[in-house]
Amino acid sequence: MSERADPVRWEWSGLRRLVFNPLIVKDGLARVRSWRAPAVIALYLGLLGLFAWLAFSIQLTGFPQPTGFARVASNVFTALALVQLALVCLVTPALAAGAVSGERERQTLDVLLVSCVPSFGIVWGKLVASVAFVLLLILAALPLFATVFLFGGIDGQQFLVAQLLTATTALAVAAVSLFLSTMFRRTLGATVVAYGLTFAATAASWYTGTILLASGHIRVGQALLFANPIQAMLAALQGASSVVGRAGGPPAYAVTGGGLVPLGPRPSAPAVQPWEVTVAIELAIVAVAAVGTMFLLRERRGGGSGSG
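The chain above was modelled as a monomer; its predicted structure follows.
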């Protein structure tokens, strides 16, 4: 009986260590106890609320009839989701890029490495502590999104997809920023590179891809838009067709600023939605970045502690 209970007890102990990670408690409490946390939340909600009011005001001038309220709400919700995605991409690198390099600058990294916390526990604790505040911002903005949602034009699945895309994008950006924080000695260098990679993978690739699609460079534009979170958000909220066929065939349509560009016949097999591809790739990026961070920490713990 005790032998059968031991694996259960071991699994429960491992789960308990994940949830009650000391780094999550230390970094999380240190972040929310300062005056900056409520100030950032207030600024975040204020910017979203102001943008929602401006978007409603602009849209109502184009759709004054009551029958156009659903279209207005759909456009406002899409714009609001994109603004939230941009704000999350701005906040996340600042929170995660100094997670490890900050410990090195405070000369506390070696103390952390010689502790009983394993490398996976350090990566898990730093990653969760960095993403937790971003998730708090997303949760705080849900009532604002729900207000727009009540006007119609957006169904429940689109509402959930928008929040899921934002959360997984924040997780991917945080994981890459944490890896850069481990690789760079200084927080400034890690933050600059993290912002550069985030901008290149989101806004720059989306803008360049849409321009190339509009100018007829289909293959290159499609490659840049593949798994782009902005493209996936637009496709999920505006009802655009997938750019990837489930059977591996050519894409049916691509989304540009002016509408849909036909790329060939629609594949007979059900299409993979762009948000599904984006979420899967972002989770893969999180896994690769976490493994890379653990490798760097173990290398330093094993013999490179004097080189930092």
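Confidence is low (pLDDT under 50) at residues 1-5, 241-270.
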